[in-house]
Amino acid sequence: MGPLQMRGLIMFLPQFVRVFWRLMHDARVSLLAKAVPLLGVLALISPPLLELDFIPLIGELDWLLVGFICLKIFIWLCPPDVVREHVSNVARGV
Predict the structure, then answer these.
(1) Is the dihedral of CA 65, 68, 73, 74 positive or negative?
(2) Residue 6 resides in a domain
(3) Buried-most residue among 17, 32, 78, 80 (CB within 10 A)?
(4) Number of domain units in the chain
(5) Which residue intervals of 1-94 are DSSP H helices?
(6) Burial profile 16-25: b = 16 or more Cβ within 10 angstroms, e = fewer
(7) Residues 35-65: pLDDT tens digits?
(8) Which residue segment(s) compose the domain that 31 sits in?
(9) CA–CA gap between residue 94 and residue 86 (Å, rounded)
(10) CA distance 15 to 93
(11) Please, are residues 2 and 61 in contact by the beta-carbon 8 Å criterion?
């Protein structure tokens, strides 16, 4: 990943957080989908994963991997039309 791609990713992060926040508060998204990120956080603070934090580099990678997988599953479980609606609203600044 080059510096320009990393810059684009960092600049997109606030928009992604807004879409994630809106999806978490949307009544059309199922409780199962909303539970996935919460379960991911619970998994990250569980004792076996906390022990990995003491190993350099691996401790950070597990946080990134669990976070990425949970967010992908969350988006996958959300209704596609609801996701498109929120993405377009955030892109327009609404």
Answers:
(1) positive
(2) no
(3) 78
(4) 1
(5) 3-24, 31-44, 47-52, 58-77, 80-92
(6) eebbbebbee
(7) 999 998 888 787 776 676 677 777 677 777 8
(8) 12-92
(9) 9
(10) 9
(11) no
Rounded to whole angstroms, the Cα distance separating 79 from 8 reads 26
Neighbours of 78 (CB within 10 A): 22
Q: Is the pTM of this model over 0.70?
A: yes
Percent of the chain with pLDDT over 90: 46
Amino acid identity for residue 19 in this structure: V
Whether residue 2 lies inside any domain: the answer is no
CA distances from 9 to 4, 6, 20, 72 (A): 9, 5, 15, 16
Structure tokens at 31: 């409780």
Tell me if 70 is assigned to some domain. yes
The per-residue pLDDT for 52 is 67
Tokens of 24: 């978490």
